[in-house]
Amino acid sequence: MPDVPASLYLDEDVSVVVAAILRARGFDVKTAREAEQLGRSDFEQLGFGTVANRVLLTHNRVDFERLHLEWLENGRSHAGIIIARRRSPAELAARVGRLLTRLTADELKNQLLYV
Question: Which stretches within 25-108 are classed as H helix?
Answer without folding.
Answer: 42-51, 61-73, 89-102, 105-108
